[in-house]
Amino acid sequence: xxxxxxxxxxxxxxxxxxxxxxxxxxxxxxxxxxxxxxxxxxxxxxxxxxxxxxxxxxxxxxxxxxxxxxxxxxxxxxxxxxxxxxxxxxxxxxxxxxxxxxxxxxxxxxxxxxxxxxxxx
Length: 121
Known about the structure:
Layout: H1 5-13, H2 16-29, H3 34-45, H4 49-57, H5 62-68, E1 81-82, E2 85-86, H6 93-109, H7 114-117
Antiparallel strand pairs: 1-2
Organism: Winogradskyella psychrotolerans RS-3
Pfam family, one: DUF2200
InterPro entries: SP1917_dom_sf, UCP033199
């Protein structure tokens, strides 16, 4: 399943700050912590807590968010289906990166072990 240009543009202009509270709610409702969420975010993007807060305060779009990120070299190991899309089949790089993040948050909320989420094992 490929994404449409309209879908890709909608993701590009969405702000990270608008989605971040939903990530928190999702993981906390399943017994995980904000610290674990931040660990996942830092693994994927290289952003520490301070940089993450700056990006939230600045209300950057996902396009800017991932442009500033230093994507983990093992991010390509994130596979599967999220939001109805098979990650490895997504052709638009930004949409793929956002879906990487969605998949990691989903795995965290589902109780997967951190070593597996961070593709260390």
